[in-house]
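Subject — a protein and its fold

Tokens — whole-number codes for backbone shape
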Amino acid sequence: MDALAKGTLKTIGKPLPRKEDIRLITGRGRYADDFSMSGQLYAAMVRSPYPHARILGIDTARARGMPGVVAVFTGNDCRRDGLGPIPHAPLPSTRYDMKLTARDGSRDVFPGRHELLPVEKARYVGEGIAIVIAQSREQALEAVEAVDVAYEELPFVRAGDRSPAIWDEVPDNVLVDTMFGDAQATDRAFSAADHVVRMEFHVTRASPMPMEPRAGLAYHDHGASRYTLHLTSGGPGVVKQRQQLAAVLGVEPERVRLMAQDTGGSFGARNRPYVEFGLILWAARRLGQPIKYTATRAEEMLSGYQGRDLHTSVELALRSDGRFLAMRASNLSNVGAYCVSLSPLGKGAALITGSYDIPAATLRARAVFTNTVPTNTMRSSGRPEVNFALERLIDTAARELGFDRIELRRKNLIRPQAMPYTNAVGTTYDSGRYEEAMDLALRVSDWSGAGARRRAAAARGRHLGVGVANYVESSTGAPKERAAITVTPQGRVEVVIGTQPSGQGHETSFSQVIADLLAVPLEAVDIVMGDTEVVSEGGGSHSGRSMRHAATVMSMAANDLIAKGRRIAAIVLDVAAEEIEFRDGRFAAPRTNRTLDLLELAKEAPRYSLPGDLKDGLTVRKDNEMHVPVFPNGCAVCEVEVDADTGAVEITRYASVDDVGRAINPLIVDGQSHGSIAHGVGEALMERFYDDPDSGQPLIGSFQDYGMPRAEDLPSLQTEIMQVLSPTNPLGIKSAGEGPTTAAPAAVINAIVDALQPFHVRDIELPATPLAVWQAIQAAKAQHAKR
């Protein structure tokens, strides 16, 4: 911490190129599907074609007799072997998370029994019903078609349907129903308000859509009675998923080894284990051979965990001068057939008032089961949904009540001097300069020049609109993290850490932190992650927690290492330990003429007889728990041109300002911001999972059906980093990579609605596809004609 205290940082804050990229772009990445073993078998899944159906019987005889087929297993086989359901534990885990409850006020929320293979019912299209194991992948896929499942089709449930019950334990399908805020204060404020504006939104279901489909290679060592799995992992990481899979198998976690080297994206999709991982581990033990499973893209789209899907009703009470008085909201989250995570509902509940000083608020937060794929956390988990509703509501209030939308926001933004600020539902923001972020975004985007560009667009037959959205989001996540640091005689600094990257650049940014904390060369640092054989504790990568938790525990471990180094240096230099100083990266004693840096000391130490607690040399291990959240924030400005004849939308400018606290590597932060913007823009304009309303069948099965933004869909993005240091951790880190997604949907839709003001369009449903925009224009024209 010497360099940090002196402000002489050499690598922290520098835009250094990612050192892992050479490996990744030259084909030397180590992804789950890259691993193979001699004699391995291949798995394929039989999946339900119905959203809700009773399983009457499964005939596997014909499939078992096909060439190359080794076994076909069903849910009854799993039950006979005592396999348990996946223990998802969906409630958020830190002391500062919103306390979601069942209707009776208890925290005993029933998540459904997520068995590896169901026995009684299929509860969504694509749910695995049986698994086929064969000598080749092609043989397994062919045999899947020969498994004959007899179903009794049942009525299926959409969000808000109270019957039929998906689970007997939750007869009306409502598993969470919680009230937050001060209802009496909110009611009083609404009664005294001069204006009330109301809106309803459905933030539609989308997919994290990682580039790499999920995959795994499992094998079982009968002699040691140990399971090993190479897998695609992210989120809570290999440590947590090892615990969950061990519970499914009914063994101690120490008997399960998970290895996840490189992972091609997560965005929430990897945050919980999939049934296929438990199945191939179990089948590897049953059959005595390694088993490999790789999902097809269609399977990933059909059965991978999805995100968003929030229905929300919001209303805002205002004084005649535009001051916000109170807010009410009712949020209904569709968790799917199994409740994998309630984090989106809880995190959204904590931030319903966003960046604004709204004195009173009330929120009803509910979660419901439906016959759809389970939803999970997805980039910025729960915050884009509530931020979209709030920022759309403010824009609508400004337009309908005659306020300037920038000045209305400026009047109500939380002031820096109010920090730390506790909002109306009890969430305390750590720091931020919200008005400064908005003003910077307006300058970067040339907001003042939009009028001239609007006239130029009109001359070309286009309608130009500009939209703005402020945001605040939270970074919480699993509270525990562990760092182990070893300086080897070979001149390497090995750092074992429990986070799990999926493309974020941890090898580089973590090395920058260690290089400055210990005054060692960046190229001497090796970051070790993703293998439970060496990573024994850690919370993984989710909720923007990685850098904050890792840097904090690495700072603590670095202090311990330097203290240990002083004692070892005293032996090497033959002086008393209290004489040793660590200054400018070197150990020294005033009465000697020798100094040693950490690498030199590690090389010298083995030549000396070290006492008991120093025998292991320059190695330390440190655990830390951190429950206090931080609150990244910022502002986005989007400019669009709309072709009213076709509904086509073109984004012509986009600016984003993001307060991430201390930016360890601004180059990586900018890259994360660009991807985060694209993610949010995709949800605003094109991404949605559609189901047929009559049959419940998904209508999305490939990239031909599911739109995602390409490079040509986005202009050159203007991103700026603000660094308002958080007082909650030694390096002042908040979070990067999720905030721009939070603001993007609202900024884009606000811009489109602004462009369509000549047609008196009040709102556009998500996603704003050309068809949706064209229909909104036609509906507004028809409504206006009636007047």
